Amino acid sequence: MAQPILEVRDLSKNFGAVTAASNINVAFAPGETVGIIGANGAGKTTFVNMITGYLPPTRGEIRYRSQDITRKRPRDIARLGICRSFQVSQVFVSLSVLENLLTAVAIASSPGLGMLRPLRRPELLERAEVILERYDIAAYRDQLASDLSQGARKLLDIAMAVVSGPKVLLLDEPTSGISSGEKTALMDVVMDALKQDEVTILFIEHDMEIVERYVDRVLAFYQGEIICDAPPAQALRDPQVLQYVIGTEIRAAAGGHA
Ligand SMILES: Nc1ncnc2c1ncn2[C@@H]1O[C@H](COP(=O)(O)OP(=O)(O)O)[C@@H](O)[C@H]1O
Ligand SMILES: [Mg+2]
């Protein structure tokens, strides 16, 4: 691989007796789109939380553009260009779509919390307008976030994560809670918007059709380890992936336990 944009070395995380990440070594090329799969509890969110500074690793190192970012604060990591969305939407339901975006832009551009400047400054508004268009939510700009469809609310949530123009974006289950008919429409908008800036995208996903359609590379997690790292055509046929990931998803979708 040419110079990776992001690299983790021997990354481990224990919660008491639970090993949520075990000696993970992986590197990502600029502009890659990577799908992270794995059953519930496999360690996917923990991996994302460590890269974005929300959880300190027990051991190991995270490097971004050759800089050691291990143990930096989430805010400082975001400023360097690694942003994320959460499994649970971070949208403010009592604000309009535009107000949500303006808030996100203001936070991203303020030197510190507690130093928020007036939200409707022209340059903030301009940035918010660009994002509204790019994420296909301009039509809802004055609607309350609580009145949006699930799909539009997810778009707003992701749009709020990218206001600072990240180089790496991590999305924790961007299509969860979305009807299968709406998923590709949502992902088309997100992927088109991000490809324009050659963003490296890592997203956690349970729907294998979405994985197959949008990613260059699959990382399959099982018990805190990466059990497969391969292009989707290969990864989704891998015997271990079939057993420990896809089999579990099928049982979960059928109403069984993951
Ligand atoms: N803050 C935490 N405290 C204790 N255990 C945790 C915490 N976060 C995650 N875990 C445990 O770590 C393992 C991996 O969790 P997680 O990364 O959330 O999995 P996934 O996102 O793949 O469903 C699970 O066993 C989970 O219970
Ligand atoms: Mg998770």
Topology:
Elements: E1 6-15, E2 18-28, E3 33-37, H1 44-51, E4 59-64, E5 67-68, H2 74-80, E6 82-85, H3 97-109, H4 122-134, H5 150-161, E7 168-172, H6 180-195, E8 200-204, H7 208-214, E9 217-222, E10 225-230, H8 232-235, H9 239-253
Helix pairs in contact: 3-4, 3-5, 5-6
The chain binds adenosine-5'-diphosphate and magnesium ion.
The site of magnesium ion has 3 residues, from helix 1.
Short key terms for the protein model shown above:
258 residues; alpha/beta; Rossmann fold; 6-stranded mixed beta sheet; 4-stranded antiparallel beta sheet; 9 helices; 10 strands; 37% helix; globular; binds adenosine-5'-diphosphate; binds magnesium ion
Report on the structure:
The chain is α/β, with parallel strands linked by helices. It has one domain: Rossmann fold (3-Layer(aba) Sandwich). It is built from nine helices and ten strands. The strands form two sheets. A six-stranded mixed beta sheet has the order 6-7-8-3-9-10, with helices on both faces. A four-stranded antiparallel beta sheet has the order 2-1-4-5, covered by helices on one side. Helix 3 crosses helix 4, helix 3 runs parallel beside helix 5 and helix 5 packs parallel to helix 6. The two termini are 35 Å apart. The mean pLDDT is 93. The site of magnesium ion has 3 residues, from helix 1.
